[in-house]
Design brief:
heterodimer; A: 18 helices; 16% strand; disordered N terminus; B: Rossmann fold; six-stranded parallel β-sheet; DNA helicase (chain B)
């Protein structure tokens, strides 16, 4: 976590980010402690002194500093205790700073009084999970300090930063990653989407489809596709660029999105006339559906993935609504839903999204990734996908952050895995293969307990058995496996017939 | 209804949301500034501390809609009508029915005497939140202050029902608030919808909130040859946007409502729920779930939908100059959070269209 620009040094007390209750809500919502420039709604605190840095001061705090950030009774002060290795030192050993920190760097959130703690966590926000940090009531930290505002200002005056990080863009991209990962279940294959969303290389599985060119990175911010990009990719990139520039507080306007994409594609000289004509038809259809003069029931088989994704995104502007498409019978493939969800993630960003859509483990990895990108530090986690029984897990640095159920085994695989040496199983399998007419799979053995006699009359043999024969039937495993390999489709009507008979019997 | 994200709230809403949980406060603002929503959030914050809290609403406001919203916020039991709560208070604390000078007019002199004679035990004092405080009598606030642990009043004197109710000055005097905050902006509608809605009450004495910053598509005015096409358009919209809450508000005409119910039932996809609401009937309607809710103009007050359709404008029989009609159009248009569709059927544009600000509306031929 150490900021490479400033090595950390010795400090006399705990390192504290002194702010007020409102900015803390933003920190917990985003999972990131960010400076003034990174906050959409900022309430004055010490970051005013260095808008691209979060000042950190050694406790205990002075009255002068507290008065700078707080205005009781509404805006009471809050102090975040920060791990020393997250803090960059300055010329004053009582003052440090950080660029961006994740919640992991917060040892505790200190409040001056029990009432302040009560007041802070009593409010409910859709995008805040208060349990993600620890709290302490520590009145001793809020008095007794002698650090002046001027001393803090002077210590921070030596900090130099380059251009402002793209806080808004990185939040949008993190929102897109979150949404794309949330569709992993539709793929039944975490590799396909997870590694792409986390920018972890490999994973180009869907040859010819969006899987070939699907990316979530800052190249989406402006429409500038590579020379050889397909029309499908160009359309996705045009939509992504427009989604990033959309204000999430405005009502989602699918028709406006289509119009803006249209402008970008028409200005792109690499898009040929056939593709433009094709897009014109698709755009017209999307507009008619959004304007409710045409009914949308299912995607067609002739749509490009990006056309379908734009249509779905135009209809479902809210994150939860677009994810609900996974439960609806709309046709299309999993990449279409992933691309649509990604577009809506670009509109909303991560930190304003409901915590219901942000499982903690996944969200904290996305916050770590966002921080790395904001401070220009490489993010090189170990990302792996592991299958475990009925589920597949996405692990980052060994910790599972996302699990999706594996697809159910096909019927023939299930049948092939049945142990036919067990009597009850054998009878069940025999019933199925009899109905299927797979005679060669049934192995019949006749056991005669006594002797037999053999006579020949007029060139004909006559064999007589003595005793009561026993007939045993079993499954010829080799024949069964051959049938399952070559004729598995026949199983469905068999099982359907069994179900129908069962229904009639009831 | 969901809780807001931190970013959803403006700074003036933050201030109201962050008012200390202890103490007495007055929050004012014109209609549409979200006083009731902020009262509900405050109710949730107080209820989460496992202390007794009551959000009191004037009877006419505790609609089925509000009750359901309260359920979704997880604060069942917190919201009561003023009269219902007062009755329970009198019985449980003093063993008497509400003293009244006449039906539905509490005898405040006697009630305040009782409050002084038999004050509630310290642990039994509730936090009281009062919505539409201007509709309560000034004496109510004397009583409330004497029995409540904390009191927050949301009010707008411009909306007083009669002169018997309270001015803001009277409320201030009675509750002596620790702080007074003002909500100024419309947070329900888009700017485009708010512009159309405020057109009908431009000279309103009740005041209008500042325009919202949130933008969206322009409201639309469409002409349909027949009711069939009008209903079909609504059904197509509802099928395409099946996650939205859609209100179809028809002029007060039983036959018209019945026609739309039948047409929509036939045209809507199976996956879209159709409900019919009347604030007078006993119909159970789920407001806070996606689908189409069909209702009369008269039942629309206090409700909100993602999209609102106002069909059959030609069937409105009121005088065009009637202030009531203008107020109704304001109320109807401002029910829409995101999309607003006005339409008429038949030959020619009806006279009522002349009341509409067509420069603010997308007119569909």
């Amino acid at each position: 976590m150490t900021d490479p620009l400033f090595p950390s040094g010795h400090t006399p007390g705990p390192w504290l980010v002194l702010t007020n209750r409102s900015n803390v809500v933003d920190y917990i919502a985003s999972g990131l402690v960010r400076p003034k420039e990174g906050l959409e709604k900022y309430y004055a605190d010490l970051s005013d002194l260095v808008p691209l840095r979060v000042p950190v001061v050694a406790g205990p705090l002075s009255v002068e500093l507290i008065e700078r950030v707080a205005d009781r009774p509404i805006h009471f002060p809050v102090a975040l205790e920060i791990a020393a290795d997250a803090v960059s030192s300055t010329t004053d050993d009582r003052v440090g700073s950080l660029k961006v920190a994740t919640l992991d760097a917060i040892a505790k959130v200190h409040l001056e009084t029990e009432d302040d703690l009560d007041e802070l966590v009593a409010r409910t926000f859709d995008n805040v999970d208060w349990s993600r940090v620890e709290y302490a009531v520590s009145p001793e930290l809020f008095s007794g300090g002698d650090l002046t505002l001027e001393a803090v200002r002077e210590a921070l005056s030596g900090t130099q930063d380059g251009p402002a990080p793209k806080f808004e863009l990185e939040d949008r991209l993190a929102g897109a990653r979150l949404m794309a990962l949330s569709t992993a279940e539709a793929h039944h294959d975490l590799d396909a989407v997870a590694l792409v969303a986390l920018d972890a290389g490999q994973a180009r599985t869907a040859a010819g489809g969006p899987g070939e060119w699907f990316v979530i990175d800052d190249s989406l911010a402006s429409y500038s596709p590579s020379e050889g990009a397909s029309f499908d990719e160009r359309l996705f990139r045009a939509a992504a660029a427009r989604c990033i520039s959309t204000s999430r507080s405005d009502v989602w306007d699918g028709a406006r999105l289509v119009g803006e994409i249209d402008e970008l594609l028409k200005a792109d000289h690499e898009v040929d006339g056939d593709d433009l004509a094709r897009w014109a038809k698709a755009a017209e259809r999307i507009r008619e559906i959004v304007d409710a003069v045409r009914t949308f029931e299912r995607l067609t088989t002739t749509e490009y993935s990006s056309e379908a994704a734009v249509l779905l995104a135009a209809l479902r502007g809210r994150p939860a609504d677009v994810l609900a498409l996974m439960l609806e019978d709309i046709g299309g493939d999993a990449w279409t839903v992933t691309a649509a969800a990604t577009l809506i993630g670009l509109v909303h960003g991560r930190h304003a999204m409901s915590v219901e859509l942000r499982p903690e483990a996944l969200d904290s990895v996305l916050a770590r990734m966002e921080r790395s990108r904001l401070i220009g530090s490489p993010w090189t986690p170990t990302v792996e996908v592991a299958a475990d029984g009925a589920k597949s897990s996405l692990k980052v640095d060994g910790a599972a952050i996302l699990e999706v159920p594996l697809p159910p085994k096909p019927l023939h695989d299930l049948l092939a895995s049945i142990d036919v040496d067990i009597s009850a199983n054998r009878e069940a399998v025999l019933e199925v293969v009899r109905i299927a007419g797979w005679q060669e799979v049934i192995r019949t053995t006749v056991i005669v307990p006594g002797t037999f006699s053999h006579t020949v009359e007029r060139k004909t043999s006559r064999i007589e058995f003595h005793g009561d024969p026993v007939i045993e039937q079993g499954v010829d495993r080799t024949a069964l496996e051959h049938r399952l390999e070559t004729d598995a489709d026949a199983l469905r009507p068999v099982l359907e017939r069994l179900v129908a008979e069962q229904h009639e019997a009831r | 209804m969901r809780f807001p994200t931190y970013q959803d709230l403006s700074k003036e809403q933050d201030d109201v949301n962050n008012l200390p949980l202890k103490g007495n406060y007055l929050v004012t603002g014109p209609p549409g500034t979200g006083k009731t929503v902020m009262a509900l959030y405050r109710g949730k914050a107080l209820a989460g501390r496992r202390e007794s809290v009551q959000l009191l609403m004037h009877g006419r406001l505790l609609s089925q809609y509000t009750s359901q919203v309260v359920g979704h916020l997880g604060i069942d039991g917190v919201v009561n009508t003023f009269f219902s709560w007062l009755g329970k208070w009198c019985r449980s604390n003093w063993g008497v029915n509400t003293p009244q000078v006449e039906p539905y007019r509490p005898d405040w002199t006697r009630i305040i005497e009782l409050a002084i004679e038999k004050p509630p035990a310290r642990g039994a004092q509730p936090h009281l939140l009062v919505d539409e405080g201007q509709d309560m009598a000034p004496e109510f606030f004397m009583f409330a202050k004497s029995v409540a642990k904390g009191l927050t009043v949301f009010a707008d004197e411009n909306q007083r029902i009669t002169d018997d109710n309270s001015t803001l000055a009277e409320i201030r005097t009675k509750i002596r608030p620790d702080a007074e905050l003002k909500l100024t902006r419309n947070y329900r509608n888009t700017r485009e919808i708010a512009l159309v809605a405020r057109h009908f009450v431009a000279d309103s004495p009740t005041g209008v909130p500042e325009l919202p910053e949130r933008t969206g598509p322009k409201p639309e005015l469409a002409a349909h040859p027949r009711t069939h096409e009008s209903a079909q358009r609504i059904a197509t919209y509802a099928g395409n946007f099946k996650r939205q809450q859609i209100g179809v508000i028809v002029p007060n005409d039983k036959k018209l409502l019945s026609i739309y119910r039948n047409r929509l039932a036939a045209a809507l996809p199976d996956s879209v729920r159709l409900q019919h609401y009347s604030n007078k009937g006993k119909t159970e309607v789920e407001f806070d779930t996606p689908g189409v809710t069909l209702l009369h103009w008269a039942s629309a007050k206090g409700l909100e939908f993602d999209a609102v359709f106002l069909p059959e404008l030609q069937a409105v029989r009121q005088e065009l100059g009637s202030p009531l009609l203008h107020m109704q159009l304001h109320v109807l248009c401002s029910r829409a959070r995101e999309r607003l569709f006005l339409s008429y059927t038949g030959e020619g544009r009806p006279a009522i269209a002349s009341l509409l600000p067509l420069d603010l509306i997308k007119v569909v031929p």
